[in-house]
């Protein structure tokens, strides 16, 4: 009898191969054949799950988004359970920064694919989802904190997160995690100082 394949595990192997290739060489290096070679599979095995390169790339990006979202939902659950709002907000924002190997990996993949949105409609949709999702999260955090001028402050903080993320994966040497946190904390402290009567939930 043919050997049963664990579909979830096989997809994960393919995604991890995509991520390694994207980090090493960008979208052009993540062809179906190279992904198959990287995953130790034949190309037919990859085509069993993905018909073409664009479908594979967008699916891989959504896998990254799902991983980040899972951590954010866990942080939100802690907040709903009574965690300190300021600490919970900081923890959620840190999920969006390249502070360790996992988050550098994720940030690199997301920026690499989002940049392709200038040329490819499927990636443009993904880029918009990343952009809008970041701002929805930050808007919720700032609204819970009772921050004045929440629309402007959302964009200011989102731009800070975007900039730190971009510099964290492109600049050589990259800003250290400690420096990224220093910049984030300075900004959050400014917000607290200018909104002393913010709401607490």
Automatic annotation (TrEMBL):
InterPro entries: BetI_C, Homeodomain-like_sf, HTH-type_TetR-like_transc_reg, HTH_TetR, Tet_transcr_reg_TetR-rel_C_sf. Pfam families: TetR_C_6, TetR_N. Coiled coil: none annotated. Keywords: DNA-binding, Repressor, Transcription, Transcription regulation. Residues 8-68 form the HTH tetR-type domain. One of its GO terms (molecular function) is DNA-binding transcription factor activity. Gene3D superfamilies: Tetracycline Repressor, domain 2. It comes from the Bacteria. Residues 31-50 bind DNA. PANTHER family: HTH-TYPE TRANSCRIPTIONAL REGULATOR PKSA, HTH-TYPE TRANSCRIPTIONAL REGULATOR RUTR. This is Regulatory protein, tetR family.
